[in-house]
Amino acid sequence: MASAAPATHVDATPALRRLYVTRFFFAAAWAALLLVSGSDLTTATKVLLFLYPAFDVVAAVVDFRSAGATGPVKGLYTNMAISALAAVGVAVAGASGVADVLRVWGAWAIVSGLVQLLVGVARRPMGGQWAMIASGGISVLAGASFIRGASQDDPSLTALAGYATLGGIFFLVSAFRLPRSARRG
């Protein structure tokens, strides 16, 4: 017989579900805008590149507030710090070129992917976290790919749109898995 999910996890589930759906829509819109703007580092593209990790900071704050002391606090604090550094790093790298942006983004994807994987593992009792665990692992691999892509003759930002889209899909899958997992326990 399956045990009931801890009440603290069940209480955080609706807020986490809303956050995950919001993250999906943000990622999808962001990816579409990046594809439209292309790989040239225009002012609009630089703003988009800054906004993605900045949004991740805001999402981590919302996540922390909804989970409170019952959530994986250290992981969420770590994610806030890493994403804030990435936002600043991407803004600075934008002045140097696409290759430097990809290096910063790749490093961020690796570290934040590891954190996401660990937070997903910590939340396994809540249910619906397999997609977050997989997404974290894929983020690590994607980050390495971005760093490798930075050394190409003509590096491109378009892979970042795919990265954001896939990440958004994983958030959406988790959002739909949370209610079912919370009811079953």
Please explain how this structure is put together.
- By secondary structure, the protein is mostly helical.
- Helices cover 81% and strands 0% of the residues.
- It has 6 helices and no strands.
- It has helices at 7-37, 43-67, 73-93, 98-122, 130-149, 158-184.
- The radius of gyration is 17 Å and the shape is elongated.
- It starts with 6 loop residues before the first helix and ends with a helix.
Number of helices: 6
Instruction: Please count the beta strands (DSSP E, at least 2 residues each).
Output: 0
Strand proportion = under 5%
**Helix and strand sequence:** HHHHHH
How helix-rich are the residues, as a percent range? over 70%
Task: State Rg.
Answer: 17 Å
What kind of sheet is the major sheet? Answer: none
Element layout with pairings:
Blueprint: H1 7-37, H2 43-67, H3 73-93, H4 98-122, H5 130-149, H6 158-184
Helix pairs in contact: 1-2, 1-6, 2-3, 3-4, 4-5, 5-6
